[in-house]
């Protein structure tokens, strides 16, 4: 529900001091694992930035992005460690020629062990990702009751090789028996 509110509720007018001026105020709930600070911690931008930082910490990389679902496409909202070519190219994702688009469509995480050889990408998408220095990617959909709100993706400088790493990324949750 928090993710739904963060993504769907429009911000206040520029002159307004609060989003909901007539609402009774209560202390903000704790958001474990999302290190937010100060009065700005309740803002849409801070929550998304905190979620991205947490995913990048878990996946042990400094490259990643958050996309929000809008009008049948993903719109790039936040990013870190990615170059301008990649962020411009993926500003809006509509086609299913990327791991984030397929994760959004399937409503499940998608991990690409080697961007260079994965058949999930078209040539232009593959080029944009590789030239940004990403050789592996992990896309995790943000959902609320099955409804897609957005996507958080991490990018990694090295491919996941069976000989050097486990067959799946170390943060992947095993399927229940």
Overall description:
This protein is of the alpha+beta class. Helices cover 26% and strands 23% of the residues. The chain has helices spanning 2-8, 44-59, 84-89, 99-106, 123-131; strands at 63-70, 73-80, 92-93, 110-112, 136-144, 147-156. A hairpin with a 2-residue loop joins strand 5 (136-144) and strand 6 (147-156). The longest helix has 16 residues, at 44-59. The model is unreliable at 162-168 and 173-177 (pLDDT under 50).
Question: Descriptors for this entry?
Answer:
177 residues; alpha+beta; 6-stranded antiparallel β-sheet; 26% helix; globular
- The shape, in one word, is globular
Total number of strands: 6
CATH fold assignment of the domain at 42-156: Beta-Lactamase
CATH architecture of the domain at 42-156: 2-Layer Sandwich
The major beta sheet can be summarized as: 6 strands, antiparallel
* Helicity range: 25-40%
* H and E order: HHEEHEHEHEE
The H-level CATH homologous superfamily of the domain at 42-156, spelled out, is: GAF domain
Poorly predicted segments? 162-168, 173-177
CATH class of the domain at 42-156 reads Alpha Beta
Summing up helix and strand content along with how strands pair, one would put the structural category as alpha+beta
In the sheet with the most strands, the strands line up as: 3-2-1-6-5-4
Roughly how many Å apart are the termini? 28 Å
Annotate the secondary structure layout:
Layout lengths: L1 H7 L35 H16 L3 E8 L2 E8 L3 H6 L2 E2 L5 H8 L3 E3 L10 H9 L4 E9 L2 E10 L21
Antiparallel strand pairs: 1-2, 1-6, 2-3, 4-5, 5-6
């Amino acid at each position: 529900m928090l993710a739904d509110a963060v993504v769907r509720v429009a911000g206040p007018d520029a002159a307004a001091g609060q989003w909901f001026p007539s609402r009774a105020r209560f202390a903000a709930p704790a958001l474990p694992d999302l290190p937010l600070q100060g009065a700005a911690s309740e803002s849409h931008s801070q929550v998304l930035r905190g979620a991205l930082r947490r995913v990048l910490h878990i996946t042990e990389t400094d490259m990643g992005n958050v996309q929000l679902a809008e009008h049948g496409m993903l719109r790039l909202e936040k990013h870190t460690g990615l170059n301008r070519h990649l962020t411009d190219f993926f500003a809006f994702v509509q086609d299913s020629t990327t791991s984030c688009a397929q994760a959004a469509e399937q409503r499940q995480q998608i991990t690409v062990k080697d961007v260079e050889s994965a058949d999930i990408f078209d040539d232009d998408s593959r080029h944009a990702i590789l030239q940004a220095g990403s050789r592996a990617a992990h896309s995790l959909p943000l959902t609320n009751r099955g409804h897609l709100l957005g996507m958080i993706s991490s990018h990694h400088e090295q491919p996941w090789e069976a000989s050097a790493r486990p067959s799946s990324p170390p943060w992947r949750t095993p399927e229940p028996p």
